[in-house]
Amino acid sequence: MLKSCYRDIFEAGTDEAGRGCLAGPVTAAAIILPEGFENPILNDSKQLSETKRDFLRPILEKESIAFGVCHVFQDEIDEINILNASILAMHRALDSMTQPPNFILVDGNRFKPYLNIDHECIVKGDSKYMSIAAASVLAKTHRDEYMAKIHEEFPMYNWKKNKGYPTKEHREAIKQYGLTKYHRKSFRQLPEQLTLDI
Is residue 196 in a domain? Predict the structure, then answer.
């Protein structure tokens, strides 16, 4: 059962999607839900089907007090590393909200202070707090939408299906076609070679 509120009416939940991908952005969302908000379907986005996530997205965006979504793209990920890029995406998502929060709930265990607003990191927060679960749904659906768009440019990698994650199919496509402008060059794209061809 998700808790609806931690401590404050303008509490923002924030989460990211795409941290472990080989291609595409890391995407973060932040959202402030109204007091008393309930939805029987809402859960951690990883526990929901794509259909349910897509169903929830317009509901969350319409009923929220404020929300923001931000992509941090592969070039910036390569420059500052994926942890910093994930936190930066959360900060930018918070920046883009029309109503600033006065408390921030963060999924995970790492965050950097945002302005002078108190925050708390909560491991597996997307399965504990409604605002974090809502942020996880927004981050995932916005990122999936972007990956489906760039899939049209490079269909051989099948990003529409694998979303840039390191599936066997994605790695095989990298072996065959090489890297694109959307791949993260700082990530190990293929497993290390275990045998030498002698």
Answer: no
